[in-house]
Amino acid sequence: MIDLTADTVTEETLLKGCQAHRADGTIIIGTMLSGCPAEFIVEEEVFDSSGQDIQDETGSVVKGRIKYQRV
Known about the structure:
Elements: E1 19-21, E2 27-29, E3 39-45, E4 63-69
Antiparallel strand pairs: 1-2, 3-4
């Protein structure tokens, strides 16, 4: 037997799908990040090697897209 009484894990602080025990010994399944989208895209400016904005032929700042995807 081990003493769990000082443990502070909760469903919300445990990664989704992982299993652990609360301080009282109850088995819990994690829900952390369960509400996050499967993917999202962030647009940001693109810079050249000297840190300057890159502009298109009309003078507009070029933006890049970064796609984050949960796997």
